[in-house]
Each structure stands twice: as structure tokens, then as C-alpha cells.
Amino acid sequence: MAEVLVYVDHVDGAVRKPTLELLTLARRIGEPVAVHLGAGAEEAAKVLGEHGAVKVLTADAAEFADYLVVPKVDALQAAYEAVNPAAVLVPSSAEGKEIAARLALRIGGGLITDAVDLEAGDEGPVATQSVFAASYSTKSRVTKGTPVITVKPNSAAPEAAPAAGTVEQLSVTFGELATGTKVVSRTPRESTGRPELTEAAIVVSGGRGVNGAENFPLIEALADSLGGAVGASRAAVDAGWYPHTNQVGQTGKSVSPQLYIAAGISGAIQHRAGMQTSKTIVAINKDEEAPIFELVDYGVVGDLFEVVPQLTDEIKARKG
Amino acid sequence: MSLRIVVCVKYVPDATGDRHFAEDLTVDRDDVDGLLSELDEYAVEQALQIADEADDAEITVLTVGPEDAKDALRKALSMGAHKAVHVEDDDLHGTDVMGTSLVLAKAVEHVGYDLVVCGMASTDGGMGVLPALLAERLGVPQVSLLSQVAVEDGKVTGRRDGDAATEQLEAALPAVVSVTDQSGEARYPSFKGIMAAKKKPVESLDLSDLGIEADEVGLDGAWTKVDSAAERPARTAGTIVKDEGEGGKQLAEFLAGQKFV
């Protein structure tokens, strides 16, 4: 069976969920071989093996943290040359897409980004993408070289599939460009204790209607009652009420949770582009004409300052 | 020594319009108005600010696209860019991101550069990979997704706000930079700027000027193929209730019914 390279996104060996989703998708087209760069390969290998990785190729070097993107491309290329895979899958993070693009160019393989589904086809993997603010769904494939495909979080449910997960050292030679962009300093984001926005099963977002940073705790309390992540519309972010890293929309993050709750968000096209593929959509807005109501499974026309606290209390009560 | 800045911009279909596919599954451009990609306005803005700080800088704005794409160049020129280059060729129809990065790389080399500035992504394809591809092709550092950028002493520095961390980056020129929508509000063209833009030079290039063969680009030269495009079925109309004091409780009931609570 053909091997499929899966690039592992992890924090010091703690594998992030989108990588486990990739392993599930990779098994539809071949045998997953995971590529783990940096520290923590032993811990990661256990989880990767439980989810179907027959092998884990690993390399650790200071270059991965000290310089931007290119050292990881060098390493993934080394893995590609060692394995000669049928496809390379990478999580669709900002960095993941840059790594995938540079690798694709180097190996002469076509690139598909932001796939939301993946299946085996007669002429190689077929990727489903959601385009034009999710108003269209396309099926595409790579026609030249080895397919390099990035996949969005929440595109598949991770399935356990015990495999060997044998760890092998990967030999990497860094090219001249690897040290081109130096990471002078790095400040890790403070953990909120909430799930990662793009990975969360439930997202609660606030918009212009939240009317100030001081009111965002209302949105946070609702998110916490559901164990969800907090998002914000561009209007709320531009007004400085919530950090840009939480922005949902075309120029922010694209999310596809099981449940999306939009509070005080009108639903401009830029916002819809980032959340329209959510499974269940709920909106709370004073304006019954707000375009967000065209998308909802359930909408409440009302003042979010009344509805949201009542909802939060009711959820807490039900959860006892 | 003059600082040569090239800003890559894209002419995109208006996202607020009704976008469709043409029969060959490329974007139907006849059906919807085009404009300078909003995210590229930030790139033009940052280039202008970098040029203001430099003793002597020249900004060339570059695009690849059909005749109408000149509108995107005019907008950038009216914001303050000095000159423009338009790569236009019938064989470019249907070019994918790999082909586009080839054309841009050749055109950037044709113009001559110390710094290339791009937006973080196009507002149509939205892949966000072009700056990385351009850096790979040009063989220079990529300093991408910056919310702050500065050029000094032959170096570019910037701040990248990632998912897990904020990073301060540094690279020697020449380099490719991309900036996010957090880098700073783009200026509106002044009346004077609009009038001045009409007199600024726009150089037109075709594939042969850049030494690119037709089969390296276009639909046939693409490394990927769209096999089908289906309009997403309209969502079935949801339940909408007016809050008359119990809206939150009703919503909780709905969420419980869906097993979210």
C-alpha cells in the first residue's frame, strides 16, 4: 500500500487534534507516515501510532525554532525523498500552508489548500473545498507530481487505529535559505484555558452588538458554560474589544464547529466566509433584518444583554 | 542607493457580489465587478510607509491579470505608488497559484527589487501561500504575515502574530514580506493622488517579455484541476423566535434538544 506523509502539528510532543484528523483521512488513501519535527517525538509517537501512523520520522534541531518556516520545509522534503509518498498532508494553519506550498514547488507537485474532505480517486486523492464564502463546494485533484494537500481542522473525526508508530530518525541537511529569517524573540500566547478557536466543537462569537470590551465577559461566560471557544467579528476586533487572534471571518480565522453561536453579529459576507460551514448555527440579534438570520438553524430576535445571560444561566442550571 | 520596493496586488471579484464559476470552472469574471483586493491595500500602505522612512525609495506596483486589472494598478498609483507593471497575456487564463508565482517572480526580477510586499492572501482564492512561493522562487527570505513591519540598515524586521505565539522576525534584504489587515489602515487616495495617477507610467508585459512558455501557465499548465463545482444547497429556513422575556430559555431548550447541553 502506498505511503502518505502526514506533517505533525504539536506543542513539545503534545499532538494537536487536526493532525489526528489528518491521520484518519490519510488512511483512506494509504498508510500514514508521520513527520515529527522538534522535541517530544517519543510522546507523540504513542498517540500517532494509536491513530494509524505506521512510522514516525523525526528530526530535532535548533533551526526549527530559531528560523521561520524554511527549516521545516527542508525536513519535510528530506522525508518526502526518503519515503516517496503518494501524497503529503499538512494541517491548514497559516504556517502549515506556507510549508506545504514551498514543498509542493520544490517537488513539482500540485498544491490544494483548505480541503474540508478527502477521498481516494482513480487519478489520486480528490479534495473537497468550500469556496466563495462557502456558497460553492468544489472537488479538485492534483494533475502534476505528488499531491500536497492542506486540510482544515474539523474536516474528519479522529478515529483510533492501532499501528506500529515506530520512531525513525530522519537525516536533514539544511539549505542556504533555512537561516534566512531569524526568529529574534517569541512570546507564547497566554492560555485562556478555552479550546483553540479553529479546533473547538463549539464557538460563541460576539460582534458590534456587544458594544464594548467590558461586555465581552458575557460572551466568554456563555462559551465557558458550553466548554466552547470565543470568537469575534471584524467590527469587534477593529474596535479593539477583542484580540485579532480571535477574529472569525475572511481576514481572520475560518471555523467549522458543530455549533456556532453569533451574538450581536449582523452577518456581513466577510464574517459568513469564516463560519458558514458550521454544522448548527444560532444567532442572537436585535435586528430581525440582519443577514445572519438567513443562515441560522435557530435565531432569537432580541437584546443580547437579556438573552445571553439568561441562556448562560439556563445552561448552567441544566448541567447542574 | 535607492530602495526598490515592488508591491504585488491582485484584481479580484467583489466578494459582496454574486460570484459564480464559468463553464471551464474558472471564476466567472464577466458576472461580477472587480476591484483591488482589500488585503493588498494594506500592502500598498505599508510600502508607502516604508518608503516615507527611507531616504530614497521607489514603489512599483505589479499585477498579473486581464485588461480590467489596470483598475487595481490605478488605485495603488493613486494611493502613492510611483509606477506600475501589468502582465497581461491571453495564455494566462486559468493560471493556478504555482503559475502565478512564476509570472510574478519573473516580473519582480524584471523590475529589480530590494523588497517585495504582498497582502496576506487574496480575497478570492484566499490560499495565503503566494508570498511563500514567491520567496521560494526568488531564493530570498520570507518574512510573512506581519502586523508590524520596518526596514532599516538593509534589514527588514516585523511582528508575526501566530496561533501559539507572537514572534519578532528579522531578515536581510532582499526579502519578500506579507502584511496582515492588522498592519495599519490603508489610506484613501486624495483627489491630487487620483489626478497624479493618470500620468504615472504603466508598463505592459506579456509572457514572451518574461521568457515564460505558454504551457507553463494557463489552465493547461495548472498543476491542479477542479473537476466539479456545486452550489451549496440553500440552508433550510431555521426557527426564529422573538424574545419576549424567555428567549434565552427557549434557545437553551433548542440546544438541549440538539444535545449540546
Automatic annotation (TrEMBL), chain A:
InterPro entries: DHS-like_NAD/FAD-binding_dom, ETF_a/b_N, ETF_a/FixB, ETF_alpha_N, ETF_asu_C, ETF_asu_C_CS, Rossmann-like_a/b/a_fold. Keywords: Electron transport, FAD, Flavoprotein, Transport. Its cofactor is FAD. Residues 4-183 form the Electron transfer flavoprotein alpha/beta-subunit N-terminal domain. GO terms for molecular function: electron transfer activity; flavin adenine dinucleotide binding. Pfam families: ETF (PF01012), ETF_alpha (PF00766). Binds 1 FAD per dimer. The keyword Transport applies. One of its GO terms (biological process) is fatty acid beta-oxidation using acyl-CoA dehydrogenase. It comes from the Bacteria. SUPFAM superfamilies: Adenine nucleotide alpha hydrolases-like, DHS-like NAD/FAD-binding domain. The keyword Cell division does not apply. This is Electron transfer flavoprotein subunit alpha/FixB family protein. It comes from Streptomyces mobaraensis (Streptoverticillium mobaraense).
TrEMBL record, chain B:
One of its GO terms (cellular component) is cytosol. One of its GO terms (molecular function) is electron transfer activity. The keyword Electron transport applies. It holds the Pfam family ETF. Its cofactor is FAD. It comes from the Bacteria. Keywords: Electron transport, Transport. Residues 24-214 form the Electron transfer flavoprotein alpha/beta-subunit N-terminal domain. InterPro entries: ETF_a/b_N, ETF_b, ETF_beta_N, Rossmann-like_a/b/a_fold. Heterodimer of an alpha and a beta subunit. The electron transfer flavoprotein serves as a specific electron acceptor for other dehydrogenases. It transfers the electrons to the main respiratory chain via ETF-ubiquinone oxidoreductase (ETF dehydrogenase). Belongs to the ETF beta-subunit/FixA family. This is Electron transfer flavoprotein subunit beta.
